[in-house]
Amino acid sequence: MKSRILWIAVLASFVAFLDGTIVNVALPAIDRELGGGLLTQQWVVDGYFITLSAIMLVAGSISDAFGRSRVMTIGLIGFGVASVIITLTPDPLILIVARMLQGAAGAFLVPSSLALISAHYSGVARTRAIGTWTGLTTGAMVVGPLIGGVLVDFASWRFAFLINVIPIALTLILLRRVPDPPHSPDARIDVAGALLSILGLGGLVFALIEEPRLGWGDPIILVTLLGGAVLFLLFLLRQRRVSDPILPLDLFRERNFWVGNITTTLMYGALSLNGFVVAIYLQQEAGLTATAAGLASLPTTIMMILFSTASGRLAGRRGPRAFMALGPILMGLGSLMLLLVSEDFDYWWQVLPAMIVFGLGLAATVSPLTSTVLGAVPEERSGIASAVNNAISRVAGLITVALVGLIVGGTIDLDGFHRAAVVVAIFLIVGGLVSLAGIRNPVLSADDDRRG
């Protein structure tokens, strides 16, 4: 049964992670067919992230209240329906709306997946299971551009979204006859808080994406920026007063939880910015096909597959602090190596070494980071804890993608590509230093060792 649970968790999360990255390599093709330029490309990515981030917090509470398996089933079906709508979309607006629906459905998948693992595994065995989950699902995040590239070049960018149907069907089959762990049917869902969160994030992201086009002096930018900030502040204040908050602020009293989430913010913001800029630059400026651009990230995928489970196991034995400190710093060095990219483009000498170093750092970091954040809270709160951590990572990503225009100077040319690489490196190195200063290695008991 445990192996079945692990595969369910992997496949369900695979759907959300794959779609979150497969889109990057399809963006130039979407622009060629539907138009809209960089602004549409940003909204295709961030429309998904806005609903994913905001609703994921509610989904964590719903998962704890109504059961992981039931919530996961709803998310899988909704994600499949939204994917079909995307394949049929005639214009950018419907595409963006469908992406937002897809993000809303995806919000039900990752928290339920991690909560299932936490409910069925304990001690070092849980750390190893999360390491396996991390390796396979994060591998999906990186292999997404490869799958998308092949489909873009040899079929259509639309099929890059339809491929989700396969893991969705497999997961629904495996979910049959899987008993739900204990949950709290009397839990209340903060719908008003969810709306404040969605509108607040939406306003902020709209202002950041549209600012390069309209300018800071435009009333629309000022209203949406200030309005979004006020609404999100009201959301945070509300979470201090309601009896069943969707973002329990008391979770952040645990040192490893709040430090881990700072590292999450910096690392996943950098990952999203890096994936967005690299996928577009390699096609629109370096002249690679979509397939070649997807293959460019394959070394990072290989590093994840080879070393992620091992890093999770070692972190379970020796503590996560060193892994969470050195891993992001190594990723940052990999990003700085992209400064070697020049007008005379050569993948083998200018990009490949950076991808390998970046992948080693990613493999060393992700599993220990996830285990540390979830291990900092009681097991019965694992659903909301995983939802908070994943929502934070998506919010970080949507903000950095929203800032792309400002970071690259309006266009992803060579200078803009280099500026983005430096910003990514700064985020990652600071994230590693935060972990080095703040993370505390937990003391493992003899019982934990025996269970592993």
Structure description:
Helices cover 80% and strands 0% of the residues. The protein has helices spanning 2-34, 37-66, 68-88, 92-106, 110-120, 123-154, 159-162, 165-175, 191-214, 219-241, 255-284, 290-295, 298-318, 321-336, 347-350, 352-375, 382-402, 404-408, 414-438, 446-451. It folds into two domains: 2-180 and 244-451, Up-down Bundle (Growth Hormone, Chain: A); 190-243. Helix 3 packs antiparallel against helix 5. The chain contains 20 helices and no strands.
**Uncertain stretches:** none
Helix content: over 70%
Fill in the CATH topology of the largest domain.
Answer: Growth Hormone, Chain: A
Secondary structure tally, helices: 20
Let me know the average pLDDT. Answer: 85
The count of DSSP E runs of length 2 or more, i.e. the number of strands, is 0
Whole-number tally of structural domains: 2
Termini separation (Å)? 17 Å
The CATH class label of the largest domain is: Mainly Alpha
Structural class: mainly alpha
H/E order of the elements? HHHHHHHHHHHHHHHHHHHH
CATH superfamily membership of the largest domain: MFS general substrate transporter like domains
CATH structural architecture of the largest domain: Up-down Bundle
Radius of gyration from the CA trace? 20 Å
